[in-house]
Design the sequence.
């Protein structure tokens, strides 16, 4: 198998990138450079787009994985709940769509298709301003997508391009110029000077092993009617701007989370190559550990993480973050409690890396908790090993928390009563 690729330089910065191209093509007689514009020495752009055409599906890209490896992870068939959203209110128009509403279901099938596999990236110019960020590198792989909703609003099969910067998940987008399903939209203007039209349905999806997350949306487009006044046309002479995307449906859940960066996803969704369930299984496998109190006393420490709900709010970035609770017990009987914890699991190329577990900062004890004590946990886990600390805080003996807050300068009336640590 040849390690060479076809490389196309796009844009006007061909000459300035020639040195890089020569290095990339050294020893590759079959490689081809195809400029899209004449080779003229003009000023270089901050970022020069480059496309490499991979010769084989199993040829590794510069991202460290091949199309075959990606397809093995993210293709296949999956089913998910689908939530059709209420129409967003507007003072300019009314919008209704059907035939589905509320909770439905979605079947999504993605299979490999014939076509070119492309590695898209950009070369940053040496004199590019510091604030310039070039586009993210992606591997682009052709697929065929079939999509059906529970009551037949959509029943579509279409070609698409997967775009991926990691082997464990990929994105795809598609605009439906027509539909073979029963989906329909009724858009009526409330403004005699303007007419409104719903644009094509836009599908946006993120795929991972065994599942997906995505949305269906449209853009509301406006135009003047023959009843528009000269004053209005003079004030806005150009084309009317397209509105913000109007989201019509989401999956697997439309239920909001407390933070905009979080989404409600299944606990077994392998969004980073591993899932919340995988993280908690790794924590459960870490076993018992020996805690040494600050007094020098030693005892066994048990940490039992509460199994997750079938769906929960998760933040997905370089790490998978979520909130759960853990039962903390020591064999000497000094501690037996259940704590809320924030868990962050780092990803390492699709594998589970270091896991950090911390109690959230609290302005006061949780409802129903002991008003005089607070327990803080800070721990890290990796490959069956772990280390961490436990700190017990509270008011001094015989002093209520209100008096302690004044005497100790602590707004919670707390000070450290005991602590322990372990390394395993």
Sequence:
């Amino acid at each position: 198998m040849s390690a060479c690729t076809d490389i196309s330089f796009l844009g006007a910065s061909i000459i300035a990138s020639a040195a890089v191209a020569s290095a990339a093509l050294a020893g590759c007689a079959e490689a081809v450079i195809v400029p899209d514009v004449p080779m003229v020495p003009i000023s270089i752009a901050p970022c020069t787009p480059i496309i490499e055409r991979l010769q084989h599906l199993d040829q590794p890209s510069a991202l460290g994985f091949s199309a075959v490896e990606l397809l093995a992870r993210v293709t296949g068939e999956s089913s998910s709940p689908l939530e059709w959203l209420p129409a967003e209110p507007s003072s300019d128009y009314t919008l209704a769509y059907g035939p589905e509403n509320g909770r439905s279901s979605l079947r999504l099938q993605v299979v490999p298709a014939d076509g070119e596999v492309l590695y898209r990236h950009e070369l940053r110019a040496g004199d590019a301003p510091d604030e310039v960020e070039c586009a993210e590198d992606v591997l682009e792989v052709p697929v065929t997508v079939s999509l059906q909703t529970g009551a037949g609003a959509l029943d579509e099969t279409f070609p698409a391009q997967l775009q991926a910067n990691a082997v464990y998940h990929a994105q795809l987008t598609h605009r439906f110029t027509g539909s073979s399903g029963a989906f329909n939209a009724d858009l009526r203007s409330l403004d005699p000077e303007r007419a409104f039209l719903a644009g094509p349905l836009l599908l946006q999806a993120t795929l991972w092993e065994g599942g997906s997350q995505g949305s269906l949306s449209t853009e509301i487009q406006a135009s003047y009617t023959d009843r528009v006044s000269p004053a209005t046309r003079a004030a806005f002479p150009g084309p009317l701007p397209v509105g913000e995307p109007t989201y019509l449906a989401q999956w697997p859940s439309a239920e909001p989370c407390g933070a905009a960066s979080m989404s409600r996803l299944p606990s077994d969704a392998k969004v980073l190559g591993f899932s919340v369930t995988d993280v908690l299984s790794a924590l459960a496998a870490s076993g018992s550990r020996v805690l040494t109190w600050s007094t020098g006393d030693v005892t066994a420490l048990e940490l039992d993480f509460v199994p997750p709900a079938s769906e929960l709010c998760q933040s997905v970035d370089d790490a998978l973050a979520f909130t759960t609770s853990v039962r903390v017990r020591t064999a000497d009987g000094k501690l037996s409690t259940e704590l809320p914890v924030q868990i962050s699991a780092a990803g390492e190329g699709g594998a589970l890396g270091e896991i950090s577990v911390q109690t959230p900062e609290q302005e006061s004890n949780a409802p129903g908790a002991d008003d005089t004590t607070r327990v803080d946990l800070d721990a890290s886990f990796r490959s069956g090993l772990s280390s961490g600390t436990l700190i017990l805080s509270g008011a001094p003996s015989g002093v209520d928390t209100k008096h302690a807050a004044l005497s100790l300068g602590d707004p919670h009336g707390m000070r450290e009563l005991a602590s322990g640590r372990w390394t395993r």
Remarks:
- Confidence is low (pLDDT under 50) at residues 1-43, 363-369, 401-409.
